[in-house]
Write a structure and sequence with these properties.
94 residues; alpha+beta; Alpha-Beta Plaits; four-stranded antiparallel β-sheet; 3 helices; 43% helix; elongated
Length: 94
């Protein structure tokens, strides 16, 4: 089986619905520009996926600074081809 494991951080946040929300997004944009960072994996559900631990905790701190809530999850993504996944699932059912 050729699986690829990648260390990833997920940051989920909930921001106030007032002007502080803009301050949060501007801070993230400034950091990406300052450090010449690529776009991260944003979702519409207030979740960011990144492989950069310091950026994950930067997002967490910024969310708290504007009065929001945030959690950081340390995850490992395991990538398999569909065939490998089917084989592994079939073996687990035996």
């Amino acid at each position: 089986m050729s699986e690829s494991r990648v260390k990833t951080y997920l940051v989920e946040y909930d921001l106030p619905s007032d002007g502080r929300r803009k301050r949060f997004y501007r801070a993230l944009k400034r950091r990406r520009i300052l450090y010449d960072m690529p776009e991260t994996g944003w979702s519409t559900g207030s979740v960011v996926k990144t492989q950069d631990r310091s950026y994950a905790f930067f997002i967490w701190r910024e969310a708290l600074a504007v009065g929001g809530k945030a959690n950081v999850y340390d995850v490992t993504l395991i990538s398999e081809t569909p065939e490998e996944l089917r084989e592994r699932l079939a073996r687990s059912l035996e």
